[in-house]
Queue: 4 jobs
Job 1
Amino acid sequence: MKQVLDAQKVIQAIRHNIPVNIKTYTLPPEIEAQIEQILEIYLKDIGQIKVKDPLVYSLKELTANAQKANAKRAFLARESSIWKTQMTTKKE
């Protein structure tokens, strides 16, 4: 289901220095496209559309690294709890 982005709300947020937040637990292509649209609206508004491609690439790299870091943190937390359980069992 594709959401239509309200460009006027994005421009209003930009002009009033209001942060645009996106919370998601997964990063499907629809959300990536929405982030790219927000960036494009912002860059057009400030007259810097020429830097869109490098910024999109950087954002994709950052989100991919964040996903990997979160997966690693979840894995290590799970392994740590297993290790603590094993150590507690051995003491008894």
Job 2
Amino acid sequence: MERIVSNDFTDEEMIYSLQEFYNEHGIRPRMKDFKGKIPSDSMIAKRFGSWSNAIEKAGIPKGKLRETDYNKEYLLNCLFKYYSETDKIPTIRGLKSKGYPTAHAFINHFGSFKNALIESGLYELRKDKHQFCDTYTDDEMLDNLKNYMKDKERIPVHSIIKDELRNPSISAYERRFYSVFNALKLIDYDYEKQKEQDLIGLENEMIEKYKQLKETLNRVPSSRDIEYYSRKYKTINSMSSYEFHFGSLYELQVICGFTPTVIGRNKSRQDLLNDLVKMSEELERTPSQNDLKYFDDVASSSTYRKEFGSWNEAVSLSGLKPNSEVYYSNNGVECLSYYELLFTNMLEENKIYFLKEERYRKYINTNRLYRFDYVIELSNQQYFIEIFGITCNQTYKERTRDKIRLCKENQLNLIEIYPNDFTSYKLEDIHKMFKEKFDLFEIN
């Protein structure tokens, strides 16, 4: 067969074919209307530079086609054409997939798509007499749904069911049962229960990922750790996901059985007061704000101030007697305990120059946030002084041992002072005690 090319047609012949279509159907021709025709859509578009140019040359009005622009004859021809192309009775979905007018065009002219098929004479040719679901009973529809679900481990999402379910379609179930998921419930497939189970599975998986991150870091991960690993390595969900599912990082850490990294946000007023009483029992005195850092499971001082207005107000409400947890030396230096006050006054009286609250990492390579109580310089040597004022708390004991170890490993001159070294509160006796400890370095 000789191949037909665009050169076989004149411009006038191509224009005539467009005008003929317009006069016959009463609508502006589209490219898909000329697919497979002679001359074809591509021939016409190539000749005139574009399809729009060809339409303009033909003198056909431009503008987007509306559903009302189609006439009945054209729509019936679409049904016949689809049937001849596919050897199948037209369906709304099938017509749409082939680029034919949408369901609204048929409904606008015929009242319903079914009426359009009846008028075309194609309705009686259906092999599936249930195509429009008028004759299906509820039991038949539910049996069909059971058959659809028998090889599936879980209920698919709506879009997948819509694509896969045929005769009757998902829209038929929605008309009959209000939704396909209502129909699924009637055959013991509960989509809501499945979503709950999925949620439990997802949250368990999120918990395991958080625990694995703890193993990787060898510590309880913070919110920053979660964000870093979720963005860089994609090994864990984002922090916003954890907050959505668990409420807060605190709740997540409690669920995992970890010591929370941020304490207090989820504690009630009574919990906060009870913690003060527990601390006082362990310390055998009213706790100070400085004591909070030695207990792993209590809130910060800022949490107490925010909740109760002041630290002393919280202490009073707990039934304890407030103490002055901040002292000032004779020269106005802030001291965090009475022992520090006595020791600072002694240094000032003896004109021993000192630095207070210096960070360890200023003098040694460490990521610890420890601070020295005092740093002094005597006889061209630096000495580092720590007053270890709490001896009954396990966390404080561990921190004390860690500080001593760091100083020893880095060959720092550490002078250790304990409560039992304060045999007298007189400044001359404290100076004598300090001199004895200092002389030990001179002897060594």
Job 3
Amino acid sequence: MNVKQPLIYTLSGSLALILSTNTSATSFQILEQSPAYLGQAFSGTASYVSDASSIFFNPAAIGELEGSHLTVAGNAIFTRAKFNDQNSNTNGAPGKTDETGFVPNLYWTYPVAERLTFGLGVNAPFGLSSKYRDDWAGRYLATYSNLELINVNAVAALDLGDYWALGIGLNYQRLDVTLESRVDSTLGINPQPATDSSARIKGDDDDLVADLSLYFKPSSYTRLGLVWRQGGEFDLSGDAKFSLNALCSPGAGYPTGVPPAPTTGTICAAMLNARAGDAKTSIALPDTLTFSISQALSERWWLHVDVARTEWSSLQSVNIINTGNNLTISELELKYKDTIRYAVGLSYHPGFAWTWRFGVAADEAPQTNPELLNPRIPDQDRIWFSTGFNYELSKNVSIDVGYAYIKVDKSRIENTELQTGHYVEGEFDASVNILGVQGNWRF
């Protein structure tokens, strides 16, 4: 049973976006940092170097690139999630979210010495955009969510000799969040979309984080990579605002007992007004550790493997606090667990301008308990199917196109709010399609 604060449980649903966001990878991680790697389901990301996007996937390997390189890319992420209501009691309509997200990537490398290469990347490793109708069954949990994390990554790669290279990087990250939900003005007595109040939270913060990487190339046929990326720690500050329906006002609504007991409207207005204003919370995004190996099977075929661990267990619970009176606006219980992602891919170079890529991957979700899931991201385990190609327009110019279909297991939600009696039960049927295009230039 997912129990939250009276009335304000809408805000813990809102906060779930910060910690439960998604478009492609599980929870709120976005892997789409390179359409080239997208084509092989992000296998061999730390071991196979083809363009400047290695600034993100393995900075130690950018010394493999000859000359200065520029990569500019964009990824369109088409997310569909339909809610099949089974036993909800909130008098709402069917729910779905069909949102399209765009993830840009920009990378530039420059060799400053024989054994030293610098790089600069701009990308968005976390994010979400989702929107439900204001009258759907789960409106007290989520109606609108927008999360953007911009990452600016400066790296240096040092050739250590004897087949080894070392990479170190510094990342500036900026996190901005906007979240909206509805509030039942009748405290569960007669929930109706027409009488709902509304809630909106905005917050932002920034942080500096590091990354370390190794690249090992014992021969021209075998390459290995290991990358650690630190998760940011954000002290989000912003505000919580409420728009009160006429039934959420002193003296309005339904009686809660024999007079002078307050009406539901009196309680609703008092609770929301007390919690409106400046708000804060702290979250720690997960560290990631990725190991990759790429092995030549022949002159034309390469095999790529990725094993990536994401330390989601850093996210167990989060409190939202009103900074003016220290009232707890909401406490969100997550109980995330660490996950591992497995990916296998192939690349085929037939001997002229084309390179073809294929891949599959299995991605674990950090939380699948129906009592803890939130509709801002109907998360579950998923399988990737990817393909793509590179085409060399000239010696110094090429393009990459990648496509992936992600099959998401059905996720079930069984959310109960004890104070109001609201109950949301059903299944989400979700899928994701991703199309990425990038251009590469060598100078």
Job 4
Amino acid sequence: MQSTYHRGHTLTWEEHSQGQNTLIFINGYSANRSIWRHEVAHMATYGRCVSLDLPGHYPAQVPPDYRELSQELLLDLELRAIREIANGQPVTLIGHSTGGMVALALAAMQPELVQRVVAIAPVVWGPLSGFLGLYQRQMYLLGGYRFYWLNYRATQCSLPYVKWGIGQFYSGDPAAYRRNPRAKAAVEHWHHDYQRSSIRNLAILLKLLERCDIRPLVEQIRCPVMIVAGRRDPVVPIQQARWLQQHVVGSQLLEVAEAGHLPHWEATDQVEAAIRAWMG
């Protein structure tokens, strides 16, 4: 594990394979970099695969006075780490949800650094929809954060409960999700580090996702972009992915008919085949 320190934050990353090309995987809200175990193994033939933290997501560390995260700070922290990982070479960014937002924004801001992007169910603008959108609205009400904290603590303490919650509130087909061995394995591997995450730090990112907006940056993207989105996404409506495809010149959109916010788990074979064909 390697790390970088910037503006009071420590972000960590892990290298999973070696090669001439560098692919950096960035997870979404409340996840951690261990969640990419299957994907980094699958993509190892493309080169050096690296998984990178989001701020405040274990094992990343925050300053003692951490109370707020702006879009500018999020992007600056990720950019600092990516520059260190890249070591002067162009990279491919593969991001899910918030990680997809980061990948797209940095592609616009740093065209000499980012050579292509795979954005899976990316957040383009806030607020979120579904249960996460409800949390965002409730956070400002009396007792709202307490409700949020108790529920997230329950997901940290109970693996069956978090499996049920992800299937119910993130997937496009909860019944099919519960039978999905790919999703089961990913959550079981990710949950150990998730138990050590600070719920307060997760809430800080969730508040940012209520007001984030990368639309002003998107039309500056010039590198190849592949967008993967589930038509039944209850967190980031499919309209955001369609808007992206219309505004990023030459981008490709894969809509997964029965999937929700986790198309790379819910339709693994279809999504992996499409990404491989696109990357060549």
